[in-house]
Design a protein that fits this description.
The structure holds two protein chains of two kinds. Chain A has eight helices and ten strands. By secondary structure, chain A is α/β, with parallel strands linked by helices. The radius of gyration of chain A is 19 Å and the shape is globular. A two-stranded antiparallel sheet of chain B has the order 1-2. The chains are: A alpha/beta, B mainly alpha.
Chain lengths: 248, 109
């Protein structure tokens, strides 16, 4: 028997992804697998809004999660900080608008569960790789531009992992590498990233030569000390040395 | 909203200053009083430290980050929760950032 953690970042209006997560959870539970937690993060926090409704003809995924949670004793945890950014005050009424069955938590709970869980399933996300990773590192892969919500939420998760002394790696691919370049505007939501090397002596930032080439960037233009990996090294890190891979 | 010396200061709903630049030493002492804290040089060291931290990293340090950052910059004997709680009994991150005029640290981090 294996244990699973589901990370839901799709917004509730994305019925396809929502159903995919729910059906996967139901299937795993029916096979006797353990689901340690369903964590709602990013736009997924909207699932915890008690005023949420679903159009007729489509399943009420909020009610379905609640039922699933009760049937299989699986905690539904919503990140309180991100929730407030999406208008969900994570307190039961009348003080807030947290839906029944959801527990207001944070990245601490998520990370504590993640390290003791066999498999992370991310929605939306890719299917987990078939190879059984053997390492203890949690790899975070970033491929969104700097101001993207996912980039910010992904960085917060990295900060949490590092502050909990969890072995971690941050891999920047595609447009994600621009997160490490000097900002083009006054807005710099990722300025706090520099505390990782400064305060936590964390320097496991990676990219590939191709990524830099496509972005037209040179290593010296990046704000953080980045190690350039070959495709094979990247595969080794993500496919073998990582306990979990989280994509943002 | 905070009222101090005949002036109103905008705050969030938890009474953290909305405008970092409106902060002043007397205002900090007033907020400390609201928190039942009498500012000593040790308190000031931490409050000034979190202000610098905020200017450098654009983020209000939550507890774990605060402990680590204080350890790194001010030394091990200060970078631990026992020392910080002795100065700010109701939560070092929460109280020091409020006195320093910073936004409230994220709950979840």
């Amino acid at each position: 028997m294996a244990s699973y953690l589901l990370l839901v970042q799709a917004n509730p209006d994305d019925i396809t992804t929502g159903l995919q997560a729910l059906e996967q959870a139901q299937q795993l539970a029916s096979q006797g697998e353990t689901i340690a937690q369903v964590f709602f993060y990013g736009q997924g926090v909207l699932y915890a809004n008690r005023f949420l409704s679903f159009p007729s003809g489509l399943p009420n995924l909020q009610a379905a999660w609640l039922k699933f949670s009760q049937q299989h004793n699986v905690p539904l945890v919503v990140c309180a900080t991100v929730a407030s950014q999406y208008g969900v005050e994570a307190l039961p009424p009348p003080a807030g608008n947290l839906a029944e069955g959801f527990h207001a938590g944070g990245l601490t709970e998520f990370m504590a569960t993640l390290v003791s869980t066999d498999t992370l399933l991310q929605y939306p996300g890719l299917k987990p790789t078939a190879t059984a990773p053997s390492g203890d590192t949690i790899s975070f892969i970033y491929n969104q531009p700097p101001l993207h919500a996912s980039a910010r939420h992904g960085l917060d998760m990295l900060l949490m992992a590092v502050s909990l002394d969890q072995p971690a790696a941050a891999v920047f691919v595609g447009e994600g590498i621009c997160q490490l370049a000097a900002p083009k505007t006054d807005l710099d939501p990722l300025k706090k990233m520099t505390m990782l090397p400064d305060i936590f002596d964390f320097e496991s930032f990676y990219t590939t030569a191709d990524t830099l080439k496509q972005a037209g960037l040179k290593p010296e233009q990046l704000r953080l000390p980045v190690t350039i990996l070959t495709a094979a090294e990247l595969e080794q890190l993500v496919g073998h040395d990582s306990k979990h891979v989280v994509r943002f | 909203m905070l009222h101090f010396n005949g002036r109103d200061y905008e705050t969030d709903k938890h009474e953290y200053l909305l405008h970092f630049n409106e902060w002043s030493v007397p205002l900090a002492e007033y907020i400390a009083e609201l928190e039942n804290i009498e500012m000593s040089p040790s308190h000031w060291e931490v409050v000034n430290f979190v202000r610098e931290f905020y200017q450098e990293y654009d983020t209000s340090p939550a507890m774990r980050v605060l402990v680590k950052a204080v350890e790194k910059r001010l030394g091990k004997e200060k970078g631990n929760s026992r020392y910080l709680y002795s100065l700010f009994p109701k939560g070092p991150a929460k109280q020091a950032t409020r006195i320093a005029g910073l936004p409230r640290p994220a709950k979840c981090i």
